[in-house]
Design brief:
Shape: globular
Order of helices and strands: HHEE
Protein name: Type II toxin-antitoxin system VapC family toxin
Helix content: 25-40%
Distance between the termini: 27 Å
Radius of gyration: 10 Å
Number of strands: 2
Number of domains: 1
Length: 48
């Protein structure tokens, strides 16, 4: 996450949310997919 924060200007709270979803193998639903779409291993789903 450190490399994503530096290269993509990802905020620390956003990186913690993404890391939690990855470690827990949870799907992640968000309206703001732009902040997360580059993170490998994140099961990103669009907000309905």
């Amino acid at each position: 996450m450190q490399s994503y924060r530096l290269s993509h200007n990802l905020a620390i709270p956003d990186s913690l949310i993404a890391a939690t979803a990855i470690v827990g193998n949870y799907p992640f639903i968000t309206k703001n997919q732009r902040h997360y779409r580059f993170i490998q291993g994140l099961n990103l789903l669009p907000y309905p």
